[in-house]
Amino acid sequence: MAGGWEFPGGKRNVDESSIDALKRELKEELDISVRTAIQLSECMHQYSDRRVLLELWLITDFEGTPISNEGQALKWVDIDILHEVGMLPADEPLVEALQARSKTRSKIKN
User: What is the pTM of this model?
Assistant: First the structure.
């Protein structure tokens, strides 16, 4: 999906759990080792030729400094402006889930 931003990750192998796929993908793409993560949300997305399940994970602890192992641009952005950076349509429901979680947590802290 050239020209759009998306969350890191990729396909899960047949013999992998979701967390194992997440750890493998983030090691391959960003050269980080995930220690702990929690699943926040998931959604189905229909492309013209296939339907995919997208999972959103919150990495709560990792080792390493993220770098682009695959030559893709990396960008850290505030949760509140994710809709403004050109996220791919498949990721929009995940952005909404992440922003809703952030707002809920902000209300609890205040």
Answer: 0.83
Q: What is the pLDDT of residues 39-86, one digit of tens each?
A: 999 999 998 898 999 999 999 999 999 999 988 888 889 988 988 888
- pLDDT tens track for 20-52: 999 999 999 999 999 999 999 999 999 889 899
Contacts of 38 (CB under 8 A, 6+ apart): 57, 58, 60
Which domains are assigned to the chain? 18-109 (3.90.79.10)
Long-range contacts of 18-21, Cβ-Cβ distance < 8 Å, separation of 24 or more: 18/55, 18/57, 19/57
Residues 6+ apart with CB under 8 A from 36: 59, 60, 61
Among the listed residues 44, 48, 59, 31, the one whose alpha carbon sits nearest the alpha carbon of residue 91: 44
CB 40 within 8 A of CB 58: yes
Q: By C-alpha distance, which of 97, 28, 39 is closest to 67?
A: 28
Q: Describe the chain by its helix, strand, coil percentages, rounded to 5.
A: 35, 25, 35
